[in-house]
């Protein structure tokens, strides 16, 4: 839609003041705003620019007397036009008798606006002064694209801009408000700036994607063909530019990319120093490690090491830890389970409704599973041999709550509605989804053979169909979970009952997939399960959907005649795991939206659907096509409410001086305002009503039909060990706290960097300081010369629990560790020994933890995100089967816990506080779960 340029919108002020003069027959100001002092000071003009200057002076725009006359003619003609629409048309006209003057005026004003007058810079400063930068807007929306301008409350920013540029002359007499003429011009200017920034971020997104490909290709070259210092330096340079793009965005994905890159650089740096000594590390690929080994000149290695160290420091200064906000109001504890209608029915009654055996045996399911999850029943026949004495073989029967969940999802699938499965960690969401797929196949066959569906579905139609269509089912999972879910499919389903077809790279990289892999299956489509990654789905969406809006209510267009993808097929039943990862409007969001359009039954799986704000849940409801979430007016109102609340909280924190040293030392209460919580509660309650009938939510506190807990495990005991720091450690934390207090340019980024530095240095005072490059504990003497309170406590806790089993947890008294109370211990011979999991939120810290355990001769195993499935399986098996003389400590980090289930471990030591209660529950659920 055409709009006024900067020059034309400025001329509107002159025109409307002149017309006001005519209408009231009083000389107001025919040369406004050129006669206003603030504007004159900013532009350097004492008179309007179309007024000729004396022959002895040079016109600021370089105009001659004739050119001034031409411009004046254009200005006078413009100002005589009564309506804005006609002025807009006139300002864009060409070839009339004012064309030369129009061109001279627009070129000079528009160039000066962005150049000498620095008015665009002034507007950016006003955005910053109002605590509402474009970067903060992106961060508030968790997106890489600016929202529509109407979604933001920019009133305060516009007032600041008007005051900064026009001063008191631009205000109504006796008022702090701008005149209508000025306010309208500012509206145009802010709109133009918003459009320019929107275009910039879109260009940056395209360039960022291209550069990411170049970075990957450069690293691949270094690993394969060009194993030299120049290629490694090129990788470093390109990666640095890529990180500059990521830094300007506040969404979680961008921040995660920065962390991943920084960890990669750290690992490469470690490899440069460690591999040169002939030792190996496991964080980087074998190809990359081999390439680094070929950099044989020590001076080259040292030089590259220094460059990488500098880049790591730069990243640490500007990057932020992944932000996850914890709000008491943003939880779902007061939401109902969604399965209340079945709450009084026992397992036999639920099985009757499902049309299966009273003992809960599911069609197409294995009769037994490996309780540890090590053996694959599609490969290892020992699980099926009932004659063998196998202590790890366990009867596979779903729990009551899982049967109820399947019934709810099937009921919804028959009606054509979606379900958000929000069961907590460890309650078996994947088993329920696989059970639904197996039951749909069973129901189809039963209807073919008998003319009726089993159980409660007897006499019903499947949506508008007499029988369930013979179509494939789709599971979409994060790339990191693909192997884990494949293992679970094999664990539950009988070998030969379904074909599991992997789709992990997208149509562009797998162009023949649908003609080869998919159609080579000997099963009918209804017995095929496509296991796809979210990466592949997003890639397909890019190739067959056209979208530009950041609003969830503006659906994309489907590209005609695109190649076959996940989004061009009809799916009988689709389940998307970790569906909250698609909550931000962007590629993944529209990919899941497109999938919902082509799926008859749809389930989104997430134990944590709300991570930062109510928008998260709204977006999920919208792409799942739940009624009520298509109200654009409601959405706009919610955006305005939450943006306003966030700004109010920010401003009040600044006014109250919350960010001070004593507060971060824990010596002062903050009374931090929480407008966000208040508005969040309102919108969460509203969305709860819209989700009614579309959710399943149970947690560890949920009960069965007879009032017993749905999980048959004993309560866990939680102990917080509050330790007193040494003076050196306290001084180190005071140092970064004082430094943070002095930095006020970007409180949000600096605040998150503060927490990153603070949390790491709580492990050891030399971390996150630059001194960690020389930090090492190769001997007990190294450790004793430079210990830390937290690592020393870890050693004591591990030693204490490894000494004998079932000991009461240690506690603290006045900041000092003390043994737990002596209690009678159960000492049955058949009980397993204690197994301890040690969790660190930072991958980079694992190196130092291992060194400390080594010098104290504590045996341990470790898991990280770079392990192969085979290696990971071997480590878990060794950990589970280790006796008192073997390694009974397992080290994991934030990237090593995905899909990790360790019900045989009974002690969790968490070295770092998680960002949210949801993360804490996820971590605890790795151990405290059904076996």
From TrEMBL:
Q: Does the keyword Zinc apply?
A: no
Domain spans labelled Helicase C-terminal: 812-931
Q: Which Gene Ontology cellular component terms are annotated? A: nucleus
Coiled-coil positions are none
- Top-rank taxon of the source lineage equals Eukaryota
**Gene Ontology molecular function: any one:** hydrolase activity
SUPFAM superfamilies in the cross-refs: P-loop containing nucleoside triphosphate hydrolases
> What PANTHER family does this protein map onto?
TRANSCRIPTION TERMINATION FACTOR 2-RELATED
The name of this protein is Helicase C-terminal domain-containing protein
The organism encoding this protein is: Cerrena zonata
Higher taxonomy: Eukaryota, Fungi, Dikarya, Basidiomycota, Agaricomycotina
């Amino acid at each position: 839609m055409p709009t006024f340029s900067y020059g034309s919108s400025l001329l509107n002020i002159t025109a409307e003041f002149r017309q006001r003069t005519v209408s009231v027959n009083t000389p107001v100001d025919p040369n406004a705003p050129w006669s206003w002092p603030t504007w004159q000071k900013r532009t350097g003009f004492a008179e309007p620019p179309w007024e000729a200057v004396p022959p002895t002076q040079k016109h600021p725009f370089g105009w001659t007397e004739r050119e001034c006359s031409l411009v004046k003619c254009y200005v006078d003609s413009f100002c005589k036009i009564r309506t804005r629409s006609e002025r807009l048309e006139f300002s864009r006209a060409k070839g009339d008798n004012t064309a030369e003057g129009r061109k001279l005026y627009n070129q000079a004003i528009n160039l000066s606006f962005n150049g000498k007058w620095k008015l665009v810079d002034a507007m950016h400063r006003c955005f910053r002064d109002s605590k509402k930068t474009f970067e903060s807007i992106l961060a508030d929306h968790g997106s890489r694209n600016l929202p529509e301008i109407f979604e933001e409350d920019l009133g305060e920013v516009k007032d600041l801009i008007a005051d900064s540029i026009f001063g008191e002359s631009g205000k109504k007499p006796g008022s702090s408000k701008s005149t209508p003429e000025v306010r309208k011009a500012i509206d145009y200017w802010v709109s133009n700036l918003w459009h320019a920034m929107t275009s910039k971020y879109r260009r940056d997104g395209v360039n960022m994607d291209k550069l990411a490909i170049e970075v990957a290709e450069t690293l691949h070259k270094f690993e394969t063909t060009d194993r030299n210092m120049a290629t490694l330096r090129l990788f470093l340079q390109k990666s640095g530019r890529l990180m500059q793009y990521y830094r300007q965005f506040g969404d979680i994905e961008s921040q995660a990319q920065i962390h991943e890159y920084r960890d990669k650089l750290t690992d490469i740096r470690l490899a440069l120093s460690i591999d040169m000594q002939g030792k190996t590390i496991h964080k980087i690929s074998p190809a990359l490690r081999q390439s680094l080994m070929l950099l044989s000149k020590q001076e080259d290695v040292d030089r590259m090491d220094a460059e990488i160290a500098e880049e790591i420091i730069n990243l640490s200064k500007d990057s932020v830890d992944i932000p996850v906000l914890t709000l008491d109001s943003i939880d779902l504890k007061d939401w109902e389970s969604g399965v209340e209608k079945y709450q009084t029915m026992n397992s036999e009654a639920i099985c009757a409704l499902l049309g299966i055996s009273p003992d809960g045996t599911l069609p197409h399911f294995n009769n037994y599973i490996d309780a540890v999850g090590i053996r694959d029943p599609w490969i290892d026949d020992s699980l099926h041999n009932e004659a063998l004495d196998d202590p790890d073989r366990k009867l596979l029967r779903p729990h009551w709550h899982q049967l109820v969940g399947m019934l709810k999802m099937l009921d919804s699938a028959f009606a054509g509605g979606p379900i958000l499965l929000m069961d907590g960690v460890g309650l078996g969401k994947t088993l329920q989804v696989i059970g639904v797929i197996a039951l749909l196949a069973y129901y189809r066959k039963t209807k073919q053979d008998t003319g009726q569906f089993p159980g409660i579905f007897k006499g019903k139609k499947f949506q508008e169909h007499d029988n369930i269509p013979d179509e494939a089912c789709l599971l979409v999972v994060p790339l990191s979970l693909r192997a884990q879910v494949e293992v679970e499919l094999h664990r539950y389903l009988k070998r030969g009952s379904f074909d599991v077809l992997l789709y992990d790279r997208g149509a562009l990289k797998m162009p023949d997939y649908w003609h080869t892999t998919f159609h080579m299956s000997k099963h009918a489509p209804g017995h095929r399960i496509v296991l796809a990654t979210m990466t592949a789905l997003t890639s397909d969406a890019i190739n067959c959907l056209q979208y530009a809006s950041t609003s969830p209510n503006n659906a994309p267009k489907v590209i005609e005649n695109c190649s076959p993808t996940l989004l061009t097929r009809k799916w009988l039943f689709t389940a998307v795991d970790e569906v909250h990862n698609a909550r931000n409007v962007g590629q993944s969001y529209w990919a899941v939206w497109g999938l919902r359009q082509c799926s008859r039954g749809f389930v989104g799986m997430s134990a944590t659907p709300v991570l930062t704000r109510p928008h998260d849940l709204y977006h999920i409801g919208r792409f799942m096509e739940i009624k009520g979430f298509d109200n654009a007016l409601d959405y706009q109102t919610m955006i305005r409410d939450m943006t306003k609340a966030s700004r109010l909280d920010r401003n009040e924190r600044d006014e109250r001086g919350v960010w001070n040293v004593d507060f971060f030392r824990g010596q002062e209460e903050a009374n931090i305002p929480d407008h966000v919580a208040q508005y969040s509660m309102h919108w969460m309650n509203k969305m709860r009503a819209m989700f009614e009938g579309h959710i399943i939510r149970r947690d560890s506190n949920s009960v069965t039909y007879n009032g017993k807990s749905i999980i048959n495990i004993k309560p866990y005991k939680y102990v917080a060990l509050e330790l007193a720091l040494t003076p050196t450690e306290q001084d180190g934390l005071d140092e970064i706290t004082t430094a943070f207090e002095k930095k006020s340019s970007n409180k949000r980024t600096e605040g998150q960097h503060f927490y990153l530095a603070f949390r790491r240095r709580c492990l050891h005072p030399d971390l996150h300081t630059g001194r960690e490059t020389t930090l090492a504990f190769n001997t007990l003497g190294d450790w004793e010369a430079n210990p830390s309170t937290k690592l020393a406590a870890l050693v004591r806790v591990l030693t204490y629990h490894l000494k004998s089993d079932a000991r009461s947890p240690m506690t603290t008294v006045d900041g000092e560790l003390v043994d737990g109370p002596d209690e009678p211990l159960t000492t049955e011979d058949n009980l397993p020994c204690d197994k301890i999991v040690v969790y660190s939120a930072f991958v980079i810290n694992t190196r130092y933890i291992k060194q400390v355990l080594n010098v104290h001769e504590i045996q341990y195993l470790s898991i990280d995100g770079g392990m192969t499935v085979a290696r990971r399986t071997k480590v878990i098996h060794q950990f589970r089967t280790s006796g008192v003389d073997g390694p009974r400590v397992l080290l994991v980090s934030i990237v090593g816990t995905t899909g990790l289930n360790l019900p045989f471990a009974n002690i969790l030591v968490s070295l770092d506080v998680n960002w949210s209660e949801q993360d804490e529950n996820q971590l605890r659920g790795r151990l405290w779960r059904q076996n």
